[in-house]
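The material for today's practical consists of a large collection of protein records. There is nothing in a record beyond a sequence line and a structure line. Backbone structure tokens are a discrete shorthand for how the chain folds in space. Nothing more is needed to start thinking about how sequence determines fold. As an example, a complete record with its sequence and its structure tokens follows.
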Amino acid sequence: MNKQAASLIVGAVIFLVVLSVGSRFWKSVPAGHVAVATLFGDVVDKPFEEGLHIPVNPLYDWHMYDVRQKSHKESAAVPSQDQLQTRLDVSVQYRLMRAQTPKILANTGTLTDVLNVNLVPKLRSILREQGKTVKRAEDFFMEATQNRLQVAVLSGLRDFLTPKGVEVTDVLIRDINLPPFILKAIESKKEREQAVEKQKAELERYRTEQQQKVAAATAERAAAEQDAAKRRILADVQAYEIEKINKAIGKNPNYVKLKSLEALEAISKDPAAKVYFINGDSPQPLPLMHLGDRQH
């Protein structure tokens, strides 16, 4: 190996050593995180926020914490007053408090330690305590019960976790799993209620149809009564007109003579008819001519 190659190798080694040692004098913290330093096991009280920090003590050991919003999902069996176990699926939204991360490191440890030691046990305990305030297992399905549970769990977690450096922002009940026989009873109840509602709808439809028929019959009857009234009025008018005409004709002597002549003409044309000339002074008519007899 020549001197030039040896010099290049020595230079590369020196560069790597300087770079390695030099990195101990600065610290880069990514977004959404804070860094907590320890010196010989002692926790530095002030955390290091996002960004580049120069210079820093090269003897520091670093512990990174993600302080962004997180969600922890938990499933727990919760007893109610009727001694039945209902499984609740709950989500807890939380974040680590930046200023409290040194305290978290000193008292609890990592984020996983925070969940296992503080959040999960307390959450399960509060759920069991609140479940005992529910009278029946099926009451977990009531909106008022769910709202009350969420508020109570949120309040209990905040009181317990805030001093420990954890900010709880919300608690949500994701699912409720009742005992199977309770679910079956609820389904049967719903089926009965649906059947009752269906019968009510049928009865309402029948009632509506009958009301429509009654209304139609009433309208037809009213129309028939109006038509009958019109007919009676027209008949009365016609009878009145006939009566007036008859009275007027009866008082006209020429009309009487005309009708007499028409009757005589009809008799004369009938071969079987007999013509009588009546003496107005005689009590009995005197037959003077029989126009229907044949001449022999």
User: Anything to note?
Assistant: The beta strands are 27-29, 33-39, 42-43, 51-53, 61-66, 70-79, 85-96, 166-177, 275-277, 286-289. The helical segments are 3-22, 101-107, 111-131, 143-161, 180-250, 253-268. The chain has six helices and ten strands.
